[in-house]
Design a protein that fits this description.
A seven-stranded mixed β-sheet has the order 4-10-9-8-7-5-6, with helices on both faces. A three-stranded antiparallel β-sheet has the order 11-14-13. α3 (about 65-75) runs antiparallel to α12 (about 295-305), α4 (about 90-105) runs parallel beside α12 (about 295-305) and α14 (about 355-365) packs across α15 (about 390-405). It is globular, with a radius of gyration of 21 Å. It is about 40% helix and about 15% strand. The protein has helices at about 25-30, 35-45, 65-75, 90-105, 120-130, 150-155, 180-185, 205-215, 245-250, 255-260, 275-285, 295-305, 310-330, 355-365, 390-405; strands at about 10-15, 15-20, 55, 115-120, 140, 160-165, 185-190, 220-225, 250-255, 270, 345, 365-370, 370, 380-385. It has about 400 residues and is an alpha/beta fold. The protein binds pyridoxal-5'-phosphate. Pyridoxal-5'-phosphate binds near residues 58, 146, 192 and 196.
Length: about 400
């Protein structure tokens, strides 16, 4: 992931003179945000009247279920929701999160101390760095993963150690190979299963090893469970908090974004180790003023109302997964059958890198796929295809890709 490598200059005007202010070094250190680049390329094509099919970003195309929209419509008319929300989340929201964790995973939580409302899990991930990482501290980051695990560290002067993920180790991030000098300066380790972008799933043995490793090396283990509800072929993703000892060293992030098609609503929560929850809450109370209370009410409905929309959603993604896998195999592109998430992780044909193949597909087929390498070094050699596009467009996209081969 290349750095933009230079400072930006922000123009200011002072009594007729144009002067500039240099942005902070941390901005210069950031790689370009993956989807901002993709959006720019897409916008250029669309402006030329070209029909671009985007299989890049994982943003569900299906609307939020009506019962959740209705709950929001009621909540927004309630004047008590118009004031500043609670920093940590309304007691009713945190209680609902705890109730959902109990019914979904059998995990008992104290909603007052072990649950924290987040403005989307991205916000929680970014602020965990402010809470835990000093300049020069390491974070163990999956060899390919959600970009903020890496950029969040850059923002605070932290360092990333990429944990290798390979096909041979079933894309389970290899924390055990971390050098001891890095471990001595490590504060946090991120894991995320079901995984974005590889769609890999974790075994309970793997979770247990990760918990023991975090305990042994005094590391906060953060399990990002953004795809907790999207499983196929009968697979139901677990919570790491189900595992013994997890609460001693781990917090887990859950989000309404993918589970309930609520990416635009910005609502999620962190659960687990109470000291870590408290530290993250302290940071947040100095930066944001909480999740809009009406959105919290809608999220309560999402979690505690009937879950049939989740089952329907899984069936839709499973059907799209099969359609894409079938189409890819007919054009000779290999992909593992994912048991979860909204992505197909496919190998690029020989002779290409992730980026050169993604660029070729965009230029020649007007289809956007995400280059695996944009998610970290272990992603090289792969592309990620998002299933958040209607079936006919998915089929059309694979047909177009075929014409480039
Ligand atoms: C693994 C992972 N974590 C976190 C997020 C951010 O989700 P949210 O919408 O809750 O901020 C995403 C979004 O794609 C993701 O894939």
């Amino acid at each position: 992931m290349a750095s933009t490598a230079s400072h930006r200059r922000v123009r200011i005007r002072s009594e007729g003179d144009v002067r500039t202010v240099r942005t902070a070094q941390r901005i210069a250190n950031l790689p370009p945000y993956l989807f901002a680049e993709i959006d720019r390329k897409k916008a250029r094509k669309v402006a030329q009247g070209i029909d671009v099919i985007s299989l890049g970003i994982g943003d569900p195309d299906i609307p939020t279920p009506q019962r959740i929209v209705d709950a929001m419509a009621t909540a927004i008319r309630n004047p008590s929701n118009h004031q500043y929300p609670s920093y940590v989340g309304a007691p009713r929201y945190r209680a609902a999160c705890a109730q959902w964790m109990r019914s979904r995973f059998g995990v008992e939580l104290d909603s007052a101390t072990e649950v924290l409302a987040l403005i989307g899990s991205k916000e929680g991930i970014a602020h965990l760095f402010t809470a835990f990482v000093d300049p020069g501290d390491y974070t163990l980051v999956p060899g390919c993963g959600y970009p903020v695990y890496h950029t969040g560290g850059i923002m605070v002067g932290g360092l990333t150690h990429w944990m290798p993920m390979t096909e041979e180790n079933a894309f389970l991030a290899d924390f055990e190979s971390t050098p001891s000098d890095v471990l001595a300066r490590t504060k946090m380790m991120f894991l995320s299963y079901p995984n974005n972008p590889t769609s890999a799933i974790a075994t309970v043995e793997y979770f247990d090893k990760a918990i023991a490793f975090a305990q042994e090396h005094d590391i906060l283990l953060v399990h990002d469970n953004a795809y907790s509800e999207i499983g196929f072929d009968g697979y139901v993703p677990p919570s790491i908090l189900e595992r013994p000892g997890a609460r001693d060293v781990a917090i887990e992030l859950f989000s309404c974004s993918k589970s309930y098609n609520m990416t635009g609503w910005r609502v999620a929560f962190a659960a687990g180790n109470r000291d870590a929850i408290d530290a993250l809450g302290t940071v947040k109370s100095n930066i944001d003023s909480g999740v809009f209370s009406a959105v919290q009410d809608a999220a309560i409905e999402a979690m505690l109302g009937p879950q049939d929309a989740v089952r329907d959603l899984c069936a839709i993604y499973q059907r799209r997964r099969d359609l894409v896998l079938h189409a890819l195999s007919t054009i000779g592109i290999e992909a593992v059958t994912p048991k979860a998430t909204i992505y197909v992780w496919a190998k690029v044909p020989s002779g290409f890198t992730s980026t050169s193949f993604a660029e070729k597909v965009l230029e020649e087929a007007n289809v956007i796929v995400a280059a695996g390498s944009a998610y970290g070094p272990s992603g090289e050699g792969f592309i990620r295809i998002s299933l958040t596009t209607p079936d006919d467009r998915l089929e059309e996209a694979v047909r177009r890709i075929e014409t480039t081969l």
